[in-house]
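Question thread 4412

I'm putting together a teaching handout and wanted feedback from people who do this every day. The idea is simple: show students a protein as raw sequence, then show them the structure tokens that encode its fold, then repeat with a second protein so they can compare. Below is the first pair exactly as I plan to print it.
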Amino acid sequence: MKSVLRKGIFVMMLVCMVFTLNVFASDTGSGVVRVPENQVFVLAKKGIKRSGKYNYAKITANSVYPDQNYVEDIYTRCLVRLQYGSTVISSEVQLTEGEPRNITIKNSYLHYDTFRINFAGNHPEHSAYIAYSYDGK
């Protein structure tokens, strides 16, 4: 009888632990991407998971800096957009260095559970590196 009771308690504890896990977890992370001249969008990260609880992802350009030595670092802005495959699922948004932004996902694309981040430079004549962080929300 004791072993049946112990097994029952163990099963109940296991069930409680499984159901308290956040099955709606989202991805967070960071990276660095090089963007070319002419404001061409470049893939920074793909397969980022969304929880589905929010209609946005939080993206921060932690640093924007020249990709050439001996060039004065006056870069402070870049462009970002979210995509699912080749489909653009957000507006193009200008980020300012160090300021987190909520990038809204268009209503008709909220059912996608993953997305990719694409960055572009803010000026057509300059290439740059962008150090970024994200929270898929």
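The second pair follows. I'd like the answer to focus on this one:
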Amino acid sequence: MQKKLTTLALSFPLVFAAQSTLAKDNGWYEAAYSADGKETYSMKFGSGERTQNKQGEAMTMVVGKQYNKKTNKIVLQKWYVTDTDCAQEYGNLVVLTIDGKYLYDAPFAIGSETISSFIAKTMCLVTANEQEKANGK
């Protein structure tokens, strides 16, 4: 059960208006950056999909990029957040390899100003927007 989020990229400007961290670069949207500005975390335009994790929980998954400006190193991953965690505004941003193997959980709580929280907030807001559209609101 997979459903592409067709408006994932279109929703980003609305999500980041208050945070002023949105930057589009070659099909990537910057979702967060480290306090020292040396690392950025971006989501691939059009990569969002609705699916289920191994436990059967509804979730949103995107292709993510971590870029270290100092070393010029790029790490590509997949990130997902469950609908349950979005609804309660805290939980785990799950990080996978690009081919889907589990790496680790990055705890988040909306408003805590951590990198995982900014990424999860974006994903949750886009998911909520998509669900409202699907429900005709």
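Top answer:
Good format. For the second protein you could add a caption like this: Helices lie at 8-15, 83-88, 115-134. The chain has a mean pLDDT of 83.
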